[in-house]
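Please decode residue identities from the backbone states below.
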């Protein structure tokens, strides 16, 4: 008796990027509509519904458990920004909260059998580019355009190439760090499934029994722990780089 295809396990290993759902030509440029875009909409919808659920019918007295959770989350983000950047940077809290929640949920959707949004380098590159723009804008705000340009010549003019490379390396390293950990975890999990399936077939089993339970333990690290850690690290680097771009000032 032959087992159904979904019970036979994978006999070959394939690692590919996000699937292209549709393509459009705009002024001679081909734009691909990938599954990452759809999954990002899915993540955004979940975040909006969750925010709506937690903040529905807020009250001053007789606070519900739902509102208590919402207030606890807001306080946690505010404390994180205040402790890391200082109280004058509290306006950054919504941005940090958005990146943190989007990163976590974008990684954890892999538990539903979906492709992690954060395993697409273009997503992390976009977040890093936004952070880079904010870092540059902060430097220009506090030092002016001339001061910002002069900074590339510090401490001596010969450091110009290295300083430019350092500026470019900041967003690139942030994107690669997050992407590498999430995508690497997906590849390792795929290799494990492939190897355990081969082991099952090697000993003459039609059903890949070794794929039951063992990969789930590994996914607890890559999907849960690593997802939370990479989101936290990305947000911490964002806050540190932006706050360090401004001169020191004592918060009151």
């Amino acid at each position: 008796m032959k087992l159904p295809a979904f019970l036979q396990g994978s006999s070959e290993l394939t690692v590919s990027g996000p699937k292209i759902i549709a393509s459009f030509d705009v002024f001679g440029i081909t734009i691909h509509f990938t599954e990452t875009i759809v999954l990002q909409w899915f993540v955004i919808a979940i975040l909006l519904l969750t925010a709506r659920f937690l903040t529905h019918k807020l009250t001053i007295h007789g606070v519900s458990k739902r509102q208590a959770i919402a207030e606890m989350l807001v306080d946690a983000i505010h404390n994180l920004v205040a402790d890391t950047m200082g109280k004058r940077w509290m306006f950054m809290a919504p941005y940090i909260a958005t990146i943190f929640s989007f990163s976590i949920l974008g990684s954890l959707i892999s538990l539903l059998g979906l492709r992690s949004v954060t395993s697409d380098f273009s997503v992390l590159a976009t977040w890093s580019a936004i952070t880079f723009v904010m870092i540059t804008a902060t430097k220009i705000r506090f030092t002016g355009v001339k001061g910002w340009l002069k900074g590339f010549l510090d401490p001596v003019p010969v450091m110009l190439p290295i300083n430019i490379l350092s500026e470019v390396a900041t967003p690139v390293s942030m994107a690669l760090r997050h992407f590498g950990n999430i995508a690497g975890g997906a590849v390792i999990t795929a290799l494990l499934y492939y190897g355990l399936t081969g082991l099952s077939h090697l000993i003459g089993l039609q059903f890949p029994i070794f794929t039951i339970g063992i990969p789930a333990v590994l996914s607890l690290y890559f999907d849960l722990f690593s997802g939370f850690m990479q989101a936290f690290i990305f947000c911490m680097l964002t806050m540190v780089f932006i706050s360090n771009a401004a001169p020191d000032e004592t918060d009151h």
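Observation: Confidence is low (pLDDT under 50) at residues 1-10.
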